[in-house]
UniProtKB/TrEMBL annotation:
Cellular compartments annotated: Membrane
Alphabetical list of InterPro entries matching this protein: Cadherin-like_dom (IPR002126), Cadherin-like_sf (IPR015919), Cadherin_CS (IPR020894), Protocadherin/Cadherin-CA (IPR050174)
SUPFAM superfamilies for the chain: Cadherin-like
Signal peptide: none
Low complexity bias: start-end ranges: 206-215
Protein name: CA domain-containing protein
Length: 254
């Protein structure tokens, strides 16, 4: 309001528009490190964690975009297995993880504005990176590996004659399983009860031995099964043994 010496007033209405500048950086909530566990059976598309960040600026200056930090050391493995939703902050699986390949991932995710922050060189550039969050993903082992059974002859003949004494070693077995704990603890057995009197498995030595004298030369075929401590992933092999080397054959079945 302006007043002259005669007391006359004149007024002028001023409207001041305050233009927001992008002077605030997003902040993750909560701040700091996150750890999540992902089972290796979890399918692609599962999103085990959602990151959250806020920015007090208005409009585009306050909009937050999430993305993988392109400068993280394990980027190739992280990018092959995870994707980050730019708008929601969900971290999702591109595919099922495999504990036997990689047990742990360290992810680095950034939150930034789509517009450059004041004083920074430009949106998306290093100067506009605003906040960083790290997430450790622990892959939880499941029983997805079947036992493997390999047969190796020890004596080079695999013949069984009536002169063989009890304890004569016929073959060495190797049973392995890539899982951990009970899921990878294997046991072997001869699956035909009637042949358990003729052959025996010595679990500690990992070998198959001839039992009592066999009588007339004949040909046996006995089945070896391997099982682990988990459900439904048995493996079976069968071993043929004969009176001559020509009959010897070991076949592994999957
Ligand atoms: Ca901002
Ligand atoms: Ca696996
Ligand atoms: Ca496994
Ligand atoms: Ca297993």
């Amino acid at each position: 309001v302006a007043t002259d010496i005669d007391g006359q007033n004149a007024s002028l209405r001023l409207i001041v528009n305050v233009t927001d500048v992008n002077d605030n950086r997003p902040q993750f909530h909560p701040t700091g490190h996150r750890t999540v566990r992902v089972r290796e059976s979890d399918p692609a598309g599962n999103c085990p964690v959602q990151l959250s960040a806020t920015d007090p600026d208005s409009g585009e200056n306050g909009r937050v975009i999430f993305e993988l930090d392109p400068h993280q050391p394990d980027l190739a493995a992280v990018d092959a297995n995870f994707r980050v939703s730019p708008s929601s902050g969900f971290i999702c699986l591109r595919r099922s993880l495999d504990y036997e390949t990689k047990e742990i991932f360290e992810l680095s995710v950034i939150a930034r504005n789509p517009t450059p922050i004041r004083g920074d060189p430009g949106a998306g550039g290093a100067g506009s990176r605003l906040a960083t969050a790290t997430v450790t993903v622990l892959v939880v082992d499941e029983n997805d590996e079947a036992p493997q059974l390999q047969l190796d002859y020890l004596d080079g003949t695999a013949e069984v004659t009536e002169n063989d004494r009890r304890g004569h070693t016929l073959a060495a077995l190797q049973a392995t399983d890539r899982d951990r704990g009970d899921n990878g603890r294997v046991s072997c057995q001869i699956d035909q009860p009637d042949l358990r009197d003729v052959f025996e498995l010595l679990p500690t030595a990992g070998s198959a031995s001839a039992g009592a004298s066999s009588g007339q030369p004949q040909r046996w075929r006995f089945y070896l099964g391997t099982r682990d401590g988990g459900p439904g992933l048995d493996r079976e092999a069968h071993l043929k043994l004969g009176p001559t080397a020509a009959h010897r054959e070991a076949v592994r079945l999957n």
